[in-house]
Design brief:
648 residues, alpha+beta, Spore Coat Polysaccharide Biosynthesis Protein SpsA, Chain A, 20 helices, 34% helix, 23% strand
Amino acid sequence: MTTTHETVSPERVSEPTAADLAEGKAVTLLQRVILPRPGDPLKVRSLYVDEERNKRVKSTTRSDATVAAGSEVSFATYFNAFPASYWRRWTVLERVILRMRLSGPGRVDVYRSKADGSIIHVTGTTTTGEDRALELDLDLAPFEDGGWYWFDVTADDAPVTVHEADWSAAREPAQDTRLSIGICTFNRPDDCVSALAALAGDPVVDGLISRVIVADQGTKKVRDAGGFADAAAALGDRLLLVEQPNLGGSGGFSRTMHEALNSTDATHHILLDDDVQLEPDSIARMFAFAGFTKKPMLVGGQMLALQDRSVLHTMGEVVAPEKFFWRAAPNTEYAHDFARRSLRSTPALHRRIDVDYTGWWMCLIPRQVMQELGFALPVFIKWDDAEYGIRAGEHGYPTATLPGAAVWHLSWSDKDDTAGWQAYFHTRNRLVAAALHSQYKRGGTLLRDTFKFDLKFLIMLQYATAALHHRAYEDFLAGPDRLFPLLPTALPTALRHQGDYPDGQVIGSSSDLPLPSMSPTKAERFMKPPTTPATITRTLATALAHNLRRPKPDATERPQMNISAQDARWFLLARLDSATVGTADGRGVTFRRREPDTFWRMLRHSIRLHAKLYREFPRLSKQYRAHLDQLTSQESWERAFTGGGTGA
């Protein structure tokens, strides 16, 4: 990758003068330069410093870094580079200041990137052994389409120590800002307490928080968890713990919004999942960003993989309008591992990403937006965050996911929420969101897509999932008046019915069943996927014909194959009478058995339901849209919280 030099006027590199200090010039902290935690493995360190493996940066705190003599370290990393293009696009700032205090002989160089990933040297200065404060005034103009700022430190014949550094603005925020945080939790008391301790334990973040609201919906109470007393003491009267029945993520987060509007004067509210690991400065970064935005907007944090912490699991998402289904935003790089490829060597990470919505694992919502739009749809889980982002966009409030602001969260690779009880919520809520926001009279290709999924699950011997889809269609067809009444009952109903068929029942191990009847060589032949329209059509026709024949007599007791989760593809299961299939989390298997009568009965039912959905979709769309304000209003949710009826 080519690095070019940009001519920079010398006055951009300066030391604060006594006159500056006397004038008390306003400086607002935007982003601290932070070092890894003690004991972080090399993979995780790659999020903070780009260093030589045999010459690691030493630090005594999370704010200082000592570079060994003769070494160079780059801060062109996910948490320490400055995402200049996002600040250029969405905020009123025109310049940013890199401030640092350092000592030792060496050099500091500032670089920027362009949207295509090419690197430009902006400016640099030498340092001596003396303790020195630097301010580097940097222009945000060249970042319309993408790009980052960062700095490198080179040590001469003795170590150089960066005592502290940050990215700041030479002005106050564009608006008055006060912060509340809402955490929705269900039977994860230890995780929730860890999040509270992380918020209170960071002095910068702690100083920003006016209120932390915890909506505890579980039977394992947060107040009973070890460490809660200390976390509560640290937050003092800023902590509000609310206990309520399990109303899902939509009910828990809506409760925190309700309390934020009623009991605080916070201008911005950040939603946080309970099962995340926090980098606390992410909270401060999102809040600082919100203070400078050109207009009120939603600001989201990105997701790092909790199972593999150097991996950026998702950068941002959109909803494809033609079939109304979420997908990665254009020009994103899925599951990027910074331990393998640094920011500097990955051009795809330098382009600005625009999104339709942001996940509620970490999402900032302005008070003005909550007051105008109301709260989440009463849909328990799934699609509440996507629908809210789309709704906000339709009202002129954009959404951005801010690089360098992230939580570690369990990635989707360790769970399959398209199967089992969650399939009900995925399907029903997708239809509800499409009825509210699709630009197409009958949802575009949405119904074709849901029928295709029904057929796929039936071919894959997942009758429980198909049955939950059908229940979702029927509840959607019942109209918007059913959403609030279903809120407390939808989960227990889905859980009760997911075991109606063998594929919904998890077994501890395939070793609990007889050995497979099919030889490994024959099984290997079945693994080859069809790749052309002709072979796909032929395989599908074979699958349908296969369901005209009775299963082999011993297949109900003895699986033909043991199949791992990643190998459970439709073209393989379509040829079998039975198989064990590993669960996505690797903790068990399901024993799937082919039932021809069930297959044809459920396929006929899916056809009838889809015909009705096609006929009724225009009418239902008008009905759901007419009820949207009722479904999301603070008054409707307040009735649901207090048990005084069914919300709307």
